[in-house]
């Protein structure tokens, strides 16, 4: 796994564990060697205790070692003690006859410890060479290793437990330190994950660790490039849409003239009518692209907001909406009360046009559409109710996605509600979708640019849908209520 955390832990923990192991080995050696020296010194003391009892008589070495004195030298509650005193020619003067042979020593009266065997059992031997008169004497003292093994086991077990505890504490400390050190990366990740898809603002470079500074600068540089690219794309889209509007409008005018001129020629009139319909669709798509470019949240400037009367914006286009509704014999009604909000007129016209156009498109022939503007206590509300097929609960989270369409058999490009979403977000508003039975599905577009963080779709489908845009701004000035039109 290519993980910085794992690499840091490996680079820190493995060497420190090795150092800890080496330290434990040294500690064991420092604890055991002095204990071994102390045991050997005790054996050497027993050997030295026999030297004062040696004397030379008539050229022969004799030892005055009583049985009681020998028993004192052999007393040990854990190990067996073996003694031997031999003359230079190998004659046994005292002790155990089966004691292993003693090596020749280079130094006199200097004990030499070494390991050996005595009666089939490992023993520790201390050999001592001394001179009595003109005679050399060899003294050997040995003991079994039971006590030493016990002490050695205690030292090993104690150090093992201590080193295991230290290793665990070491790993835990390093893990905590690495996790703490990586928190700025985690914070930066959370910051990026919590952003909306269109939030390309720069990361804060002032409150990051020195080591993350270059990374944050690189990310900010990338975000700036992406933002510039998105802006250029939007400018290109707006320019293309704007440049297409004039020739398309002229083309439509010419087609209308041709349709009148060749009305008496059925085939020509039919062909011209089809071209006119295609031109209308192209004009609408061009207008949609232009509206989408204007409504892009990343380029919207809040200082463009001003006090706007929604009802008057609707009134300006009533004739157009009525004409469109008449094509399908739809009964369209308006309940327009004075409704003032903070808004941008061009964008609000696009919002109104798209919601009403969407209602007319999806309503059946001889259906009904009701458009309302209401001044509520929390702000203005613009709503459009239709008698269309309704929106399934599973699709209510998708209808505001660009190019998503519920019914491919109905003309459209899938941008209308996406434009409504962006305009709603630009104005800090929220949009709700509710079926005819008034079970509200709130998608809180002011909180989430796609659908909303608090979406609670219901499971039923119904005939008819109500789209309502809520502008949560305080009422500005005195609101005079108008009679419904």
**Structural class of the helix and strand makeup?**
alpha+beta
CATH classification class of the largest domain: Alpha Beta
**Span from first to last CA?**
68 Å
- As for the number of domains, it is 3
pLDDT < 50 runs, ≥5 residues: 438-462, 475-485
Largest sheet: 6 strands, mixed
The CATH architecture of the largest domain is 2-Layer Sandwich
CATH topology of the largest domain: Heat Shock Protein 90
CATH superfamily (homologous) name of the largest domain: Histidine kinase-like ATPase, C-terminal domain
Helix content class = 40-55%
Given the structure, what is the number of helices?
Answer: 10
Strand order of the largest sheet: 9-11-12-15-13-14
The portion of residues forming beta strands comes to 15-25%
State mean pLDDT (0 to 100 scale). 80
Transmembrane segments: 12-33, 154-178
Catalytic activity: ATP + protein L-histidine = ADP + protein N-phospho-L-histidine
GO cellular component, one term: plasma membrane
Pfam family, one: HisKA
Q: Can you characterise this structure?
A:
The protein is of the alpha+beta class and 485 residues long. The protein folds into three domains: 4-152, 2-Layer Sandwich (Beta-Lactamase), CATH 3.30.450; 200-299, Helix Hairpins; 304-471, Histidine kinase-like ATPase, C-terminal domain (Heat Shock Protein 90), CATH 3.30.565.10. The protein has ten helices and 15 strands. The strands form four sheets. It has a six-stranded mixed beta sheet. Strands 4-3-7-6-5 form a five-stranded antiparallel beta sheet. The relative contact order is 0.07. The model is unreliable at 438-462 and 475-485 (pLDDT under 50). Its EC number is 2.7.13.3.
């Amino acid at each position: 796994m290519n993980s910085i955390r794992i690499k840091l832990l490996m680079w820190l923990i493995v060497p420190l564990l090795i150092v800890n192991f080496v330290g434990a080995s040294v500690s064991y050696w420092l604890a055991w060697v002095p204990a071994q020296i102390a045991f050997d010194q005790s054996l050497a003391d027993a050997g030295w205790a026999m030297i004062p009892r040696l004397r030379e008589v008539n050229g022969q070495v004799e030892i005055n070692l009583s049985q009681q004195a020998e028993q004192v030298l052999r007393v040990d509650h854990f190990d067996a003690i073996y003694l031997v005193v031999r003359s230079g020619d190998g004659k046994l003067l005292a002790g155990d006859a089966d004691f292993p042979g003693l090596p020749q020593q280079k130094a006199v009266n200097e004990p030499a410890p070494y390991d050996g065997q005595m009666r089939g059992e490992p023993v520790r031997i201390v050999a001592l060479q001394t001179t009595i008169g003109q005679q050399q004497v060899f003294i050997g003292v040995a003991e079994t290793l039971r006590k030493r093994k016990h002490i050695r086991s205690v030292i090993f077990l104690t150090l093992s437990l201590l080193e295991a505890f230290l290793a665990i504490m070491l790993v835990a400390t390093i893990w905590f330190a690495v996790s703490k050190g990586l928190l700025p990366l985690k914070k930066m990740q959370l910051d990026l994950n919590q952003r909306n898809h269109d939030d390309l603002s720069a990361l804060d470079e002032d409150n990051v660790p020195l080591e993350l500074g270059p990374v944050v600068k690189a990310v900010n540089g990338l975000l700036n490039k992406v933002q510039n690219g998105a802006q250029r794309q939007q400018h290109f889209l707006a320019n293309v849409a704007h440049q297409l509007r004039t020739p398309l409008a002229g083309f439509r005018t010419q087609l209308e003239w041709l349709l009148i001129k060749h009305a008496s020629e059925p085939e020509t009139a039919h062909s011209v009518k089809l071209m006119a319909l295609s031109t209308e669709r192209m004009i609408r798509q061009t207008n949609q692209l232009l509206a989408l470019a204007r409504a892009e949240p990343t380029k919207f400037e809040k200082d463009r907001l001003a006090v706007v009367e929604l009802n008057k914006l609707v009134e300006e286009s009533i004739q157009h909406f009525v004409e469109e509704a008449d094509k399908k014999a739809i009964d369209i009604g308006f309940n327009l009360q004075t409704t003032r909000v903070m808004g941008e007129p061009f964008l609000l016209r696009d919002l109104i046009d798209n919601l009403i156009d969407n209602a007319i498109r999806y309503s059946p022939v001889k259906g009904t559409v009701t458009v309302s503007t209401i001044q509520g206590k929390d702000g203005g509300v613009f709503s459009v109710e239709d008698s269309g097929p309704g929106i399934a609960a599973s699709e209510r989270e998708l209808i505001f996605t660009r190019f998503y369409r519920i019914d491919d058999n109905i003309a459209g490009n899938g941008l209308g509600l996406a434009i409504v979403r962006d305009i709603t977000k630009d104005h800090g508003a929220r949009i709700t979708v509710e079926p005819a039975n008034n079970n509200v599905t709130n998608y809180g577009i002011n909180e989430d640019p796609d659908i909303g963080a608090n979406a609670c779709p219901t499971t039923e489908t119904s005939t008819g849908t109500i789209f309502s845009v809520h502008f949560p701004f305080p009422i500005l000035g005195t609101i005079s209520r108008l009679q419904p039109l």
